[in-house]
Amino acid sequence: MTVYTVYEPESDDANIAARADRIAFVKEGFSWPALFVPALWLLYHRMWIELILFVAFFTAVPWLLGIGTQAEQIFGWISIGLVALFAFEANDLRGWALQRRGYRFAGIATGSDRIEAEREFFTAWLPQQKRRARAPEKTPAAAPARPPRTSRSSDGDEVIGSFPRA
């Protein structure tokens, strides 16, 4: 069973099909492409800030370690570990990048593959959008501000939740 986090761009477009085309499904878990070609994975998903940080880190670490065979070996092990860590966190970074671009969390979808997860998500999402399109948005009238009510017992003991104040 594969789990996807679903992100929808914030828009007031009345065309449901156009909005559905822009929905992004982000697979939860490990990303194999991000393990083998991390820079290309970042380019493909247009994650520019993360790409700049990735390149800056991998150019700064050898400079910090210095010159020599031992420094090259240490850099090799550090880079293997960091690329593996990146592969575990790549899809979460993609979700954050989508939120930065104005997408909002729309839900979770599960299925044996992406097609089944999309089918499950859209089966629940489409009726909600049709109801939202039918119901006109009502703006509630501004209610007069009232001070919050405080409840005190008659003998002066104040009770917060289920526990009396000592």
Question: What does the model show?
Answer:
The chain has 166 residues and is of the alpha+beta class. The protein has one domain (2-130). The chain has helices at 16-21, 32-36, 38-44, 48-65, 69-100, 114-134; strands at 2-9, 24-27, 103-111, 159-160, 163-164. It has a three-stranded antiparallel beta sheet. β4 (159-160) and β5 form a beta hairpin. α4 (48-65) packs antiparallel against α5. The protein starts with a strand and ends with a strand. The mean pLDDT is 84.
Notable characteristics:
single chain; 166 residues; three-stranded antiparallel beta sheet; 6 helices; 5 strands; elongated
Write the layout of secondary structure elements.
Elements: E1 2-9, H1 16-21, E2 24-27, H2 32-36, H3 38-44, H4 48-65, H5 69-100, E3 103-111, H6 114-134, E4 159-160, E5 163-164
Antiparallel strand pairs: 1-2, 1-3, 4-5
Helix pairs in contact: 4-5
